């Protein structure tokens, strides 16, 4: 009997780590990517073509039992094209929702999930009116193709409105009221074909210049009601989208202790950077549970989780031998050339206690900057 095969649209580092997880389950993988030397090429076969190439999509579908994707900007038409012959998990509705911030916020409102006050923007005049309505500071976000801080502009006073509109390319957008948050959190959850859901502990995420730098997990000092709020929101979204696979939901935490509340920011319909720590920090990583879900295998409870941290390597690789002094450190290299602001690799740290993890994280930060 031949091994089952999982097709992946996208061959970046997330595709690579999905293929690595699939291998441990005795599942073949094949990825579609325009770059023949993409990260996934180091662990699986590649179909080299654009994501909207009908012939390549047909080849991927024919060679796969199920097809998934590793990034949220896969053309929706491509997902529908593959679905004519082969299951696509998660389905196109997840792409249609996550690719447009207005669709995403409409979903949050429909599911009664708190989110920042928002106004849709379709012109400079509508932006001026919305800024007057919401006040400053506020954040202008392009409805489509925004990630790692791209397509966003802070409006800290009315005089910066015109520049903000130009900065995002004068495209349809939403305007968010500024949320005075104490920290950024995210939850990773996986839903199976039978509707069962497993959730990972909350992650504490630290960004700089719009790019994730460090994730600490499980997030500390999280009251049970806050974790339950995140878990409930993720489960509502998964069920609403009839989702199969792993998803990330990002939140702002406002307040602390018994007064803490979560404000939803956005979803990512895929495995996520804030969940990379789960490879070493849990009994079953976000990647393995995603593969299990889309290939109709039983999910694994990811708890208990070890105190863990993930550090992104951005722009420049560590010098050779720099990490040798670290214990319980795991480097995941994406096989990418150096480039400013490019995610090249990540390091996962694990420990038995939080103070031990803090010491290792401080040591690692000194090494990698």
Can you characterise this structure?
- With 369 residues, this protein is of the alpha+beta class.
- It has 3 domains: 5-88, Rossmann fold; 117-177, ATP-grasp fold, A domain (Dna Ligase, domain 1); 183-368, ATP-grasp fold, B domain (D-amino Acid Aminotransferase, Chain A, domain 1), CATH 3.30.470.
- The protein has helices spanning 13-24, 54-63, 76-83, 92-98, 101-110, 124-134, 161-167, 224-240, 278-281, 286-294, 354-368; strands at 5-9, 28-33, 45-48, 66-69, 118-121, 138-142, 152-155, 173-177, 183-191, 197-199, 203-208, 211-217, 245-254, 261-268, 308-314, 329-333, 343-350.
- Strands 9, 10, 11, 12, 13, 14, 15, 16 and 17 form a 9-stranded antiparallel sheet that branches. A 4-stranded parallel sheet has the order 3-2-1-4, sandwiched between helices.
- The protein is globular and about 60 Å long.
- The model has no long low-confidence stretch (mean pLDDT 94).
